[in-house]
Amino acid sequence: MQKQLLLVNPWIYDFTAFDLWSKPLGLLYIASFLRESGFSVSYIDCLDKYSSQSKPRIKAFGQGPLPREEVEKPSVLRDIPRKYARYGISEAEFINRLHASAKPDAVLVTTLMTYWYPGPQRVIELIREQLPGVPVIIGGIYATLLPEHALRTLKPDYIITGPGELKILKLLSEMFGLDIDEAKLPTEPDDFPYPAFDLINHPDYLLLMTARGCPYDCSFCAQKQIAMPFKQRKPQAVVDEVISHYKKFKLRDFAFYDDALFIRKEKHIEVILEKLIAAKLPLRFHSPN
């Protein structure tokens, strides 16, 4: 019987938050990879601008403010003279979405910035209340950079650190007694299926990653801990992905999520852009990183 998985992008608790081409690309890659591996996948985006309780304000190129609900400030922040809020859908809507599909066999919760851990913490608390007995797996940036704190604070059943696709497949196969054909596992960035953008409720833009990782090792950056070793994709594979997404979703705006977009630019990004210009599609590109 096909195993059911629920993937969750948690809330942000902060003084401000804004959708600046912000989607959990890693989680969407994992979603498509797990579907291709035989799992049934559903998705809840707690940062969905299209909440049933508020009308989205979409600005240029698909960006826009997130729904917000003022909440009590943590004591450590009490002296900051600004309002503190939970950004995203309401807790009631989250609970409704939890019960909108079949009870999952496991829940995968991604984590974002380290100081945003109250979001996944509250998500997991509600999952424990609403779906008792369902194992919770966390991954993402916070889980990777502060795994001991994440285990102690979020209390998941399992934690995945670093790049997640292959690790989560191995963990799920052990949990459910499934066999993996390791000979068929991806080894190159272009071997992975495209991100599962179809899971996004009303997408306004799409994301694009032409390489994984970064060749540098800057002292202020955590890239070496959270990403694969630097490897660029084949330019034609990137072009094919953009054209495929454009035809499927009819969206003009693409945001690059690369951390080193202009490395070897003459053989990489310039080739990609020249080929896309030749395709004569009305595309717009953004580079928030």
Question: Would you write up a description of this structure?
Answer:
By secondary structure, the chain is of the alpha/beta class. Helix content is 30%, strand content 18%. The strands form 5 sheets. The chain has a 5-stranded parallel sheet with strand order 4-1-8-9-10, sandwiched between helices. Strands 2-7-6 form a 3-stranded antiparallel sheet, covered by helices on one side. The radius of gyration is 19 Å and the shape is globular. The protein starts with a strand and ends with a strand.
Would you kindly provide a brief summary of this structure?
With 289 residues, this protein is an alpha/beta fold. It has helices at 25-36, 91-98, 118-130, 141-145, 147-154, 165-176, 223-226, 235-249, 269-279, and strands at residues 4-9, 12-14, 18-19, 40-45, 64-65, 68-70, 85-87, 106-111, 136-140, 158-159, 206-208, 211-212, 231-232, 253-256, 284-286.
